[in-house]
DNA sequence: ATGCATGAGAA
DNA sequence: TCTCATGCATA
């Protein structure tokens, strides 16, 4: 196409390279300082106001995030590293006794996932009518299928995408 | 470590 | 409705 996106392919890859380097060193330092992913997330409250979950810290270390998000978190984590170096704040864990129980995660069968994956590869963003039909054929709630596609699209945008499903054996 | 989910904000 | 950042629940 006529898109001029080939502007700075090198700048982009070095950007990613920097993130990979930082993420790797971050994990090493984190462990040297005696912190768990959960501990870092909690300690962030001191440096930037709000804490982060173990999930997010884990995803940063593995760069399973969008480039933008990863860069933002890098600055925050770099700051924390600086603080943790100077004075070790208590690496306390947090308790949450929320009343709100989230809906139980629905488990999508491996077979259905293969169909969803195949559909996605053909069309990343099926029209609502198509999703409706797909959900019906899979025997899954429409919102589950809709969310699956949303999450699948997000995964495509990650720096380090997770491996996709192995091909279905027919 | 990762799968499915939530919610705020954009379009 | 989608994107995007984020996390509870679970493998």
What this model shows, in words?
- The chain has 170 residues and is an all-alpha fold.
- The chain is 61% helix and 0% strand.
- It is built from 7 helices and no strands.
- It has helices at residues 9-32, 37-48, 54-61, 67-86, 110-122, 128-138, 142-156.
- α2 (37-48) crosses α3, α2 (37-48) packs across α4 and α6 crosses α7 (142-156).
- The two termini are 37 Å apart.
- Residues 1-7 have low confidence and may be disordered.
- The protein binds a DNA duplex (11 and 11 nucleotides) through α3, α4 and α7.
What's this, in brief?
The protein has 170 residues and is an all-alpha fold. The chain contains seven helices and no strands. It has helices at 9-32, 37-48, 54-61, 67-86, 110-122, 128-138, 142-156.
Compute the CA-based radius of gyration.
20 Å
Report mean pLDDT, rounded to a whole number: 87
Number of DSSP E strands = 0
Instruction: Give the CA-based shape.
Output: elongated
Q: What distance lies between the first and last C-alpha atoms, to the nearest angstrom?
A: 37 Å
Secondary-structure blueprint of this entry?
Blueprint: H1 9-32, H2 37-48, H3 54-61, H4 67-86, H5 110-122, H6 128-138, H7 142-156
The structure holds a DNA duplex (11 and 11 nucleotides).
């Amino acid at each position: 196409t006529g898109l001029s996106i080939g502007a700075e392919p090198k700048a982009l890859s070095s950007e990613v390279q920097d993130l990979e380097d930082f993420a790797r060193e971050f994990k090493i330092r984190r462990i040297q300082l005696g912190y768990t992913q959960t501990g870092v997330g909690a300690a962030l409250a001191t440096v930037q106001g709000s804490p982060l979950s173990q999930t997010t810290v884990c995803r940063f270390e593995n760069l399973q995030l969008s480039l933008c998000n990863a860069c933002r978190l890098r600055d925050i984590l770099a700051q924390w590293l600086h603080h943790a170096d100077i004075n070790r704040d208590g690496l306390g864990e947090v308790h949450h006794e929320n009343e709100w129980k989230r809906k139980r995660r629905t488990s999508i069968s491996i077979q259905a996932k293969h169909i969803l994956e195949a559909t996605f590869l053909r069309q990343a963003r099926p029209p609502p009518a198509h999703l409706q039909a797909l959900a019906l054929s899979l025997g899954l709630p429409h919102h589950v299928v809709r969310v699956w596609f949303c999450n699948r699209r997000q995964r495509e945008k990650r720096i380090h995408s997770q491996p996709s499903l192995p091909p279905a054996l027919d």
